[in-house]
Amino acid sequence: MDNDKLNTNATGTVTPIGSNTKNDAHNTIEKAADKVQPAADKAAASVHAAADKIQPAAEKAASAVHNTVDKLADKVPAAADRLATKAHETVEKVSDKAEEVSGTLGQKAADLNVAYQRLAETGRSYVRNSPGVSVLVALAAGFAVSKLLGSRRD
Hints:
The chain has 3 helices and no strands. By secondary structure, the chain is mostly helical. The model has no long low-confidence stretch (mean pLDDT 77).
């Protein structure tokens, strides 16, 4: 080949290889996006419509739960107050019974003390009136006790 033939002048624009392919791909993507866009818009509208339908139901459920919680919260202090009142009443009843039993036992102790003092006074007056008989009764009682305790030594 000749060098003169290799040096040729070219006029016009040069398009790089692959530029058409890139533009074609870009155009294809835009066409696909244009076709998909109505379906995406329709799906978004359906989701928004469903959300609009669900939101009142969710708010109603939340309101019902809040009302239930409020009712329970109102009942818990009332139940606690009732339990505290019952506990106080029970403690009062037990306290009253304990006080009553204490009073009864105190009265019985006083009665026993009076009975003991009467017995002691009766015994003293008997010993004053009959000192000889009293000594003989005391000796007989002592002998009986010594026999009872003496028989246990064997």
